[in-house]
Amino acid sequence: MKQKNTVLSYVLIIAFCILFLFPIYWMLSTSFKTNDVIMKLPPQWIPRAPTLQNYLNVFGDNKFLTFYKNSIIVSLSTTVTSLILAVLASYSFSRFKFFGSNAIQMVFLSTQMFPAMVLLIAMYTMYRQLNLINTYTALVLACTTKALPLSVWVLKGFYDGIPRDLEEAASIDGCGRYETLFKVILPLIKPGALAVAIYAFLVSWDDFLWGLTLVNKLEMRTLTPGISLTYLGEFSYDWAKVMTAAVGASVPVLTAFIFMQKYMISGLTVGAVKG
Amino acid sequence: MKLASVLNNRINGNRYRSKVMKDKAFAVSLVVPALIMLILTIIIPVISVVRMSFFEYNLLHMDKAPWNNFDNYISVLKDKEFYLSFLRTITYVFSTVGLAFITGLIFALLLNTEIKGKNLFRGALFLPWTMPQVIIAIVWMWMLQTDYGIMNYVLKSLHLIQENINWVGDPKTAMLSVIIATVWKQMSIMMVIILAGLQTVPAELKEAALMDGANAFQRFWNVILPSIMSVIKTVTLTQIIINFQMFGLFYTMTGGGPVDATSVLSIYTHEAAFMSFNMGKGAAVGVTWLLFLIGFAALYNKVLSRKEIYAD
After folding, report:
1. Is B211 contained in some domain?
2. In this model, does residue B240 exceed pLDDT 50?
3. Fewest CB atoms within 10 Å of the CB: A134, B107, B217, B252?
4. Is A119 close to B49, i.e. CB distance below 8 A?
């Protein structure tokens, strides 16, 4: 009976996984077909004559490369900025109590509730006055804000798990506070820092609203608004090309996740389960 | 002697006090950078959006912005389209979060058994969550394409439909299409977090229920569910708040159409502020929206806390 149950769960899970991941497979598979093949029914489940022509077209397109470059710059800068801010702030929240520290923590967490669209209306006006429209700075600031609250919360969870005796021992050994934080404590929360870094990268890579509204020059466009505005308009029926661009935009995040999934998932769940 | 000890005390006291002061200074200095960021990018914008909502702000001539006697709010509250977009948003939010929760819970329960390769399955099922919204939108637009989309082909082969469905282009199915794409992305995060919650349910609790002769459903309803209630509360509330502001999937897949069938709050606000250049009206919608969310979150927390026990 028990064995039968186990077999049944395997069958169920594997069937669900295949069904569930089919859209990713279909995106990949379409990107290796020509448009002639795509527009024929019944569809070729496995491309019979796979071609790299779509990839040559998409990656040979300067526009696409510009979008790609901009997304990488914005996402990496966001990752570094939010990591630094979160590592410092969450350490303070985990270890010290000072006037208003609880209130500030609450504010940090509740900012997730403010709809980006509402902030955008004010931010657009501000950025226009500060001449920040069409700059990386504008996008990095906006994306960092989005990544910061959860990053602080997750890292605080990791710091909470480290015994305070360590700091006392380090202080007796004559370590300064900053030295203690960077040389003794930080190496211990590396898994948390990695989780937060990947999360911040995913958040900014995913960004669409800020990239769409805070940028209106082609040479400053990031990947997701770029694909949506140029590829869907111009080549509305060139699905092979669109899917190839989609693969190109997914590859960095999918590979980052596949190699770091252990950290990512443990980081995300630490925050939620504790809270 | 006395003097010496008083002096000594005072010195120690000063030293202690100065250590505490230094600790505080250190603690504050760590928070300041993040706090400045928060003030610049969230607090000031929120205050300024509230202010903007009382003035006539036009994107084309922002230099003069006269007070307009609650005109923004009046025009929002008089607009039938505002209530419709609110209703659409609520339909969208509750169907996506509900469906993602149910599927996520089922997958989590399946994975919370003694099967091997659990991490592999969990990782594979988590992949959609990492993909950008816009990419998910176009992948589903292709899957749901009218003439060559795989969905129509499969449904037709199974004789479930006679005619191809124009998924994204028909007002009757447009919302459903966006819901499908959303649930596909968000099931993963629900599953991972519920699974983590399930793993914290103490084994003794489950065994005790088994000894008392509770059946599988009773064990789930009376033991497992209450123990993971706080996790469920957090994850569903987060997803509700996230989906309330969903923009990317709508903008890419339907643009709010056809004939406004998928014009949700974010699309409505975007149109008011950036297409009709009426930033004041956009701000008024934003403030109404924000107030609703704050009230809702408070209420939600209160209601769900009733079925909650703390496992530790």
Report:
1. yes
2. yes
3. B217
4. yes
Compute the mean pLDDT over every residue in chain B, rounded to the nearest whole number: 85
Token pair in block for residue B119? 């991490």
d(CA B233, CA B231): 5
Query: Could you tell me where the beta strands, DSSP code E, fall in A158-263?
Result: none
* Spatial separation of the C-alpha atoms in residues B290 and A57, rounded to whole Å: 45
A and B: number of Cβ contacts within 8 A: 265
User: Cα angle at A94 between A93 and A96, to 5 degrees?
Assistant: 65
- Helix, strand, coil: what percent of chain A each, to 5? 80, 0, 20
Picking from B256, B253, B259, the residue whose alpha carbon sits closest to that of residue B269 is B256
DSSP one-letter string for A196-212: HHHHHHHHHHH--HHHH
How far CA A90 is from CA of A93, A147, A163, A266, in Å, comes to: 5, 14, 15, 17
> Structural domains in chain A?
56-274 (1.10.3720.10)
In this structure, is residue B34 part of a structural domain? no
Residue B19 has pLDDT above 50, yes or no: yes
Count each helix (H run) and each strand (E run) in chain B, helices first: 15, 0
Count CA atoms closer than 13 A to A230's CA, side-chain side. Answer: 21
Per the CB < 8 Å rule, is A125 touching B23? no
Residue B223: which CATH number? 1.10.3720.10
Residue B67 β-bridge partners: B55
* Residue B67 three-state SS: strand
CA distance B172 to chain A (A): 22
Cβ pair A17:B279 closer than 8 A: no
B109 and B198 in contact (C-beta within 8 Å)?
yes
Q: How many domains does chain B have?
A: 1
Chain A residues lying within 8 Å of B275, measured CB to CB = none
Query: Residue B168 is part of which domain span?
Result: 80-307
ipTM given for this complex: 0.90
How near does any CA of chain A get to the CA of B57, in Å? 10
Helix orientation angle between B2-38 and A101-110, rounded to the nearest 10 degrees: 10
A76/chain B closest Cα distance in angstroms: 16
A182: DSSP letter: I
Q: What pLDDT tens digit does each residue of chain A (275 aa) get?
A: 556 777 887 888 889 899 999 999 999 999 998 888 888 878 888 888 888 888 998 898 888 999 999 999 999 999 999 999 999 999 998 888 877 788 888 888 778 788 888 899 888 888 988 999 999 999 999 999 889 988 998 898 889 888 888 888 888 888 888 888 888 888 888 889 999 999 999 999 999 999 999 998 989 999 999 998 887 765 457 888 899 999 999 999 998 888 888 888 878 777 666 54
Assigned domain for B35 exists? no
Hey, are the CB atoms on B142 and A107 less than 8 Å from each other?
Answer: no
